[in-house]
Amino acid sequence: MFSLATExxxxxxxxxxxxxxxxxxxxxxxxxxxxxxxxxxxxxxRIGGSLEEWAGRGYGFVVILDAAGEFLGRTGLKYWxxxxxxxxxxxxxxEARGQGFATEAARAVLDWVFxxxxxxYVTAMVRPDNAASIAVAExxxxxxxxxxxxxxxxxxxxxxxxxxxxxxxx
Length: 170
Fold this sequence. Notes:
Blueprint: E1 4-5, E2 9-13, H1 19-27, H2 29-35, H3 40-57, E3 61-66, E4 71-80, E5 85-92, H4 101-116, E6 121-126, H5 131-139, E7 143-150, E8 153-161, H6 162-169
Helix pairs in contact: 1-3
């Protein structure tokens, strides 16, 4: 079973029991502004989709837990067939922001994905007004690849390639 640990965090695949935490996370006005708020049924459906991705692709969404096992947010990978690309995303509870958790979790996922999978690059799809997520993408060494649209929203697609990530980690 997948599990990653960093100095301060533990990452594990999303589970059906995480639905309430995810609903609360996405009820936060700042999260809803950039990612939309959804109801419990949507999150149950989305968790099911992520579990299917884990079964079929070997990756999917993961939850971010602190050392005490407290839910901080989520990160992980999603394959977008309309782009033919795998995206790394992140979102944290309000009280967990500004402490480097998103960058720490995303780095762990990038280390893992480039070690385990033959992906040439990974993207992050960020709305151009989401300064906090742009800062995380830049700290990860991601650079703008293109402007695009995702589910009706204008986005900037950031990316980092396997070789660029390996060079940053050396």
